[in-house]
């Protein structure tokens, strides 16, 4: 597909909503609050905010710039960046990584759909059905995973402006509204004040090297970096876009949602504790970080009677929106490659790639204890940091600095005189790779 016929986001707002939607997912709403609770509360929040702009933001600019420069999928983009070096294999690894992430992500998203639907059927008195939807089983996991993948396919098949952008433009503001409603409600409950204190009043005795490394990793993963989703989205940007500015806007929106998620989840944990649910061990560690969304919070909602069903429905709808806006960006990475490298139509590419991902998800479901944690560790602990490291190295060392400057100038004519340009090239060349190595070896 030639670049002049390439689809683009129709507006900067649409791009920001789509890119933020890609970044805002379980990492923000589940991962960030539990990491914060496990690492001393406010002190982790402070270090995390620093790491978003010291580590994640520079690499986000790099991914967006590579994508917009090449106006193509990750394979062609990396070929264009450095024709002499055979680096397109990095894109292939990223396609494998993002597909594997989506394969287990779809399983978790299916559980969210199950909990959301169960609230409705409980109101109808169908308690057996509600229990089936929230009880772990192969049949339930397969059915709900397929439902979620069909939703993802539906959005991606409609393309960029009419699919991904339109979906994100409607869903992201709704996500924000639901967050605010939930947060205000939780603030009215007994115990919420203790959670707010933990979240907003720093105790620097918790500060450590391990905490800083955890905050770096959370900042990196929360912005969907290291699997080329932002590179693909960057390729759909128009040439007059100011990339540093729009990257900062995406980072700010993503970080704001993570911050609000902390305002919701940490007080909610203390509300649950006030209602008799044990949250922390005697040593102060969070007991249920891996099952917070599916055990602790539902137990809290159950103590609220009928109103708890409504609040629970709002919460799980919020979670479904966050996972859907992330999953569509993940599916778009291999789809964009299939369209351009294999000369396929979008509908065909979406169909066969989704079938492969559904198959992998099904294999994981049938061998859950052996494979689920393995795939999570393989992709998020190893593959993402390695790919992120290479993107930083490519941007800083292999890509001609003058070509980078000329690309950035198309949306920011005076960038050469800016503070950003005086810092970013050296930063992406030296500092970011060091941070990536720290995360990887940690």
TrEMBL record:
A Pfam family that the UniProt record links to this protein: SNF
Keyword Transport attributed: yes
Membrane topology note: Multi-pass membrane protein
UniProt keyword NADP present: no
Signal peptide annotation: none
Residue ranges that the Swiss-Prot or TrEMBL entry lists as coiled coil: none
InterPro entries reported for this sequence: Na/ntran_symport, SNS_sf, YocR/YhdH-like
Localization per Swiss-Prot or TrEMBL: Membrane
TM stretches of this protein: 12-30, 42-66, 87-117, 137-156, 168-187, 207-234, 246-270, 309-328, 349-368, 374-399, 419-441
Source organism, top-level taxon: Bacteria
Keywords assigned by UniProt, alphabetized: Membrane, Transmembrane, Transmembrane helix, Transport
Gene Ontology CC annotation, any one: membrane
Name listed for the protein in its UniProt record: Sodium:neurotransmitter symporter
């Amino acid at each position: 597909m030639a670049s002049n016929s390439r689809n683009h986001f129709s507006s900067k707002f649409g791009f920001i909503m789509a890119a933020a939607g890609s970044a805002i997912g379980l990492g923000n709403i589940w991962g960030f609050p539990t990491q914060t609770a496990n690492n001393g509360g406010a002190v982790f929040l402070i270090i995390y905010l620093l790491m978003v702009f010291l580590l994640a933001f520079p690499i986000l600019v790099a991914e967006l710039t590579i994508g917009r420069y090449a106006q193509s999928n990750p394979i062609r983009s990396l070929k264009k960046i450095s024709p002499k070096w055979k680096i397109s294999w990095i894109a292939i690894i990223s396609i494998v990584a993002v597909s594997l992430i989506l394969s287990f992500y779809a399983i978790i998203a299916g559980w969210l759909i199950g909990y959301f639907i169960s609230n409705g059927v409980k109101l109808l008195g169908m308690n057996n059905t509600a229990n089936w939807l929230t009880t772990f089983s192969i049949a339930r996991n397969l059915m709900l995973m397929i439902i979620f993948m069909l939703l993802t396919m539906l959005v991606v098949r409609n393309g960029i402006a009419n699919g991904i952008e339109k979906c994100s433009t409607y869903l992201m503001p709704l996500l924000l509204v639901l967050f605010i409603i939930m947060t205000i409600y939780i603030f009215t409950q007994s115990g919420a004040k203790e959670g707010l204190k933990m979240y907003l009043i720093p105790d620097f005795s918790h500060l450590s090297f391990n905490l800083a490394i955890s905050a770096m990793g959370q900042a990196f993963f929360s912005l969907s970096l290291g699997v080329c989703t932002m590179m693909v989205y960057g390729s759909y940007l128009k040439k007059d876009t100011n990339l540093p500015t729009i990257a900062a806007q995406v980072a700010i929106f993503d970080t704001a949602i993570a911050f609000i998620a902390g305002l919701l989840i940490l007080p909610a944990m203390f509300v649950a504790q006030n209602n008799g649910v044990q949250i922390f061990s005697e040593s102060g560690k969070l007991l249920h970080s891996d099952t917070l969304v599916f055990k602790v919070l539902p137990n809290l909602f159950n103590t609220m009677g009928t109103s708890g069903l409504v609040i629970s429905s709002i919460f799980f709808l919020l979670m479904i929106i966050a996972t859907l806006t992330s999953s569509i960006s993940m599916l778009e990475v291999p789809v964009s490659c299939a369209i351009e490298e294999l000369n396929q139509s979008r509908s065909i590419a979406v169909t066969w790639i989704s079938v492969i991902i559904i198959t992998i998800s099904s294999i994981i479901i049938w061998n859950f204890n052996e494979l689920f944690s393995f795939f999570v560790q393989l992709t998020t602990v190893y593959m993402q940091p390695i790919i992120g490291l290479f993107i930083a190295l490519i941007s800083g060392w292999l890509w001609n600095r003058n070509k980078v400057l000329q690309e950035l100038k198309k949306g920011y004519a005076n960038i050469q005189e800016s503070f950003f340009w005086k810092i970013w090239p050296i930063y992406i060349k030296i500092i970011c790779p060091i941070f990536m190595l720290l995360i990887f070896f940690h």
